[in-house]
Amino acid sequence: MGATAVLVILLVFLLLGMFAFLVKRYKRCPSDRILVVYGKIGGGSSGKTAKCVHGGAAFIIPIIQDYEYLDLTPIPIEIGLENALSKQNIRVNVPSRFMVGISTEPGVMQNAAERLLGLTQAEIRHLAADIIFGQLRVVIATMDIEEINADREKFLTNVSTSVEHELRKIGLKLINVNVTDITDDAGYIEALGKEATAGAVNEAKRQVAEKNRDGEIGKANAEREQRIKVAEANSDAEIGEAIAAQKQRTNVAAANAKAVEGENLAKISIALSDAERMKKEAEAAKIAETAEKVNEAQAKEAAYLAEKEAELKRAEREEAAGKANVIVPAEIEKQKIIIEAEAEAEKQRRIAKGEADAIFLEMEAQARGTFEILSKQAAGYKLMVESAGDNARDAVLMMIAERLPELVETQVEAVKNIKIDKVTVWDSGNGGSSTANFMKGMMGAVPPLEDLFKLAGMELPNYLKGKSEVENKISEGETKEDIK
After folding, report:
1. Rounded to an integer, what distance in angstroms lies between the CA atom of residue 199 and that of residue 170?
2. Which domain holds residue 167?
3. Can you tell me the distance from the alpha carbon of 125 to that of 378, in angstroms, rounded to the nearest whole number?
4. Of 171, 186, 201, which marks where a domain is finished?
5. Cα angle at 149 between 143 and 150, to 5 degrees?
6. pLDDT band at 184 (very low <50, low <70, confident <90, very high)
7. How much is the pTM?
8. pLDDT of residue 173
9. Residue 114 maps to which CATH number?
10. Which residue has the higher pLDDT, 478 or 137?
């Protein structure tokens, strides 16, 4: 596995880890709770200390933000209020049951986030009970006992308005109020009840007596009218009975004939109608069944096509997401590596090309210099040979003669630093001058010019060798007869 593949795998794992971390920090709020995000919320001048979300979701920024939930479950509160002073200075007992809960209104939710976050339901119940106790006493102090006892709707409305106004300040709302019973120690409410009961009983008795009277009168009138109507009906009935008997006998015969004919026609029509009905019902049932099957097939086909389209879209989305998460970063890294490699190669090529160009220019300059030197030397040698009458040997002699002072100087350099005054010469007694022999021997130790020329591949002219003219000619190839 290459380094690029390892880098791609590490990048994929890093992206997956980051995605999992971000998903974990994305918090959804259920419908029975309020998500409260606290920490750094908005700008510094926004004035918000928390962000409340109900029925949605929010992303919790790591380190600078955190979250908690507020439960929306209703909280029942039993209020056993006793000895509450009414407007008439009569103390009453008002046992009641309140149902409260955390409000989902934007402003009230903010109050709940600031004042109830972190409290248990028991602590919230205790806090709300204190508020309800106080407001319930205030409402009772503004109403008469008659109003409290008789007009319960007004009493409950006043209690709801007063209590809910105070509960909103801490983020709660009043869901329901139920006053079970109202009593007082002095028995005033009981006396009012007895008075109302007695009045109701007397009113009921009066109404009963009036109804009985009206009943008797109505009964007598009804009996009188009944007798009159009966007599009139008996007279009319006798006359009509005779006429009706005659008509009946006449019509019975005709009716019997028509009845038989009509019965037969009716039976025929019924049979035809039943047949037509059965035929129509069969056709309708067939059409309905066919239409139902066609509709069912079309619905299934549409459902299958929709599912197929959804699966294709999901596959395309997942494929695109996979490419975006894996291939695109890998392709970017690959292009980056290729560009860096090409840049480095181009850099090396340019450096090598620059060095090669420099070496080429240097060698070319050296070649040109050498070429110029050799060309000038060749031209000089050519002129020198031409000056010697196209005799190369004479030209060489001319060059040697030109360099002769340097050669002599070289030989002189070999003995110029010898201190003669510090040389002691011992005479061996063989005769001759000892000093002359010493100098002769010393000069003999210096390489002669002829040997130097031979080492250089040249030949010293004969006239420089100290030979006679005859020896020179012989050495040049002439015979003694030619010389004579």
Report:
1. 47
2. 73-186
3. 123
4. 186
5. 100
6. confident
7. 0.39
8. 92
9. 3.30.479.30
10. 137
